[in-house]
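for the record, two folds in this file. i put them one after another cuz i was lazy. first one right below, seq on top, structure tokens after. the second one comes after a little note so u can tell where it starts
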Amino acid sequence: MSSTWKAAGLTYNRYLAVAARVVRRSLKEQPRLQAERRGEMDLRFAKWTNGKQGENKNLANANASAMADGSHEQQQSS
């Protein structure tokens, strides 16, 4: 017996994220806003060097800037 989410080519985590988004969007205004706030994530990371923790950085911001730097470098090499 195969799961529908597997047949659709989704990972289980992605399937859960899609299902949660559908449920949040189906709620009335006030409960929807509260549920959307609970669904937000703020991931942080820090690079460790020689046993010392570096600066905490927001993962989303760091990823966006890395992607921008990568696309900028690709344009220069083309």
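(here's the note) second protein begins now
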Amino acid sequence: MSLKNDSFPSSAAFDAIQSSLQGDDAERKDAVKKGNAVFAFKLKNNQGQEQGWHIDLKDKGSVGTGEAPAGKKADVILSLSDEDFGKMVAGKTQAQRLFMAGKLKVKGDVMKATKMEPILKKAQTKAKL
């Protein structure tokens, strides 16, 4: 099942992250060990629509739509534009720069948010944004 939403071009990255996590069992376990959190992404597109995706690196190492897997809460919620998320996943900008510029808002455990960047880097090679 594709996680891509045509209204959010950068959402293809969630498919790439899912593929990266499911492709290699050792890599998935490593990501869960390093991440140890549920990361939620709230993206806003050019039309002002909002959509949420999550990456569960607490238990399964899975990706899905919505703020968190059923019955769970996100440890970190990252809110940003679809365009900026695309740039971040493509390696054209860093989360820290977006945060400092006020383009990335973080709710929850900010320290856990810093653990997200290596996971996104693994998806860079697979995502064609």
